[in-house]
Amino acid sequence: MKHDPYSLTELIRNEEFIAWVMHPDELSDRKWRAFLEKHPGKRKTVESAREYVILLAKDTGRHQPTRKQSDRMWSVVESHMHDSMQKVPDEETAPVLKATRGHGWRWMRVAASAALILSIGSVSYWFYYKKAEGPVQMVAVGEEADPPRTIRRFNDTDKPMTVLLQDGSSVVLQPGGQLSYSEGLNKKRREVTLTGKAFFEIVKNKQKPFLVYSYGLATKVLGTSFTVDASSGSKDIKVEVRTGTVSVFSISNLDNSRKEAVLDKPELEGVTLSHDQGIAFSKESGKIVQLPPATAVGADKDVSKQQFVFDETPVSEVFGILESVYNVRIVYDREKMGNCPLNATLMGQPFKEKLEVICNALDAQYELADNQITILGRGCK
């Protein structure tokens, strides 16, 4: 297989690329944007590598090994990478950039972690971009003792994609967005990495914070609903709160020990936002700008703009709204249930909690399969 200096394995150890991801400046940003414009076929690989860098940056050491130790580690890592990538089709080959091999524990651990990720067939780059099908991505619930697995969902459609997380939280991923997370890995916090735009509805857990990482920015919540817009083409990362309280802070300048302490504790710190507040974080300068208050007026299919307040609302109308904003199909007996009235306020509740409230009111049950929800019950007649 022809050597590709811009493959996933090469990018995650390219010092220049990592510097751009973790500490972007105007020069590096302009250079990599020009590269992507010239080689659009590399966009998915670059976004994938960017997420690995951000995820793995948390697990980097600070002490330096000897060159002999480093070279020995790299030889093992490269052999695993080579074996894992044998099954992945060649990608477009681009002009060579200087890629420097680090000789620190930092890059040994990053590379070893990357090799481990790549060695798991179901978590390979090709699998996630070619096998993720359907608007609703159901995730199998695993035991905490199971080996951690990295999961990636990429929305390559022109409609929203609803992702249901292991803890019951839901994420509505907009077209072009990508979400990465691990399961059964961290008992102290829930973590995802986002590129693109997504609306989060998070299950409350005061002891286990939920964090969204985007280009060195962390958005931390204990249970709330909010939007993060971390589109690659934008100079800013926007965070807008729908319900509850959110804290936003940069993790780029925190050392490893300080970072772990900040991320683990359930208390919120940094810039704190509440209902209908928002900020814009500059990728270039790191400055934070307050956004004007969010409004609930918007497109009918925008989940972040929905009030989800139902007052004697026919269930057929309620299901129609859910189908539209979550991009799912709901199957039910319209004759028995369609005219049943619903009285509920569901704003901020994750998708599955909404279904549970509705089914309790109908004395019904629901079943999930791919992007279809089947409601089973006698209805109100």
From TrEMBL:
Organism, by scientific name, is Dyadobacter sp. 676
Alphabetically ordered keywords of this record: Membrane, Transmembrane, Transmembrane helix
Per the database record, which ranges form the FecR protein domain? 160-246
Membrane-spanning residues: 107-128
Source organism's superkingdom? Bacteria
**Which GO-annotated molecular functions does the record name?**
sigma factor antagonist activity
Every Protein FecR C-terminal domain range: 307-375
In terms of PANTHER family, this protein maps to: PERIPLASMIC SIGNAL SENSOR AND SIGMA FACTOR ACTIVATOR FECR-RELATED (PTHR30273), PROTEIN FECR (PTHR30273:SF2)
Q: What is this protein called?
A: FecR domain-containing protein
A Pfam family hit: FecR_C
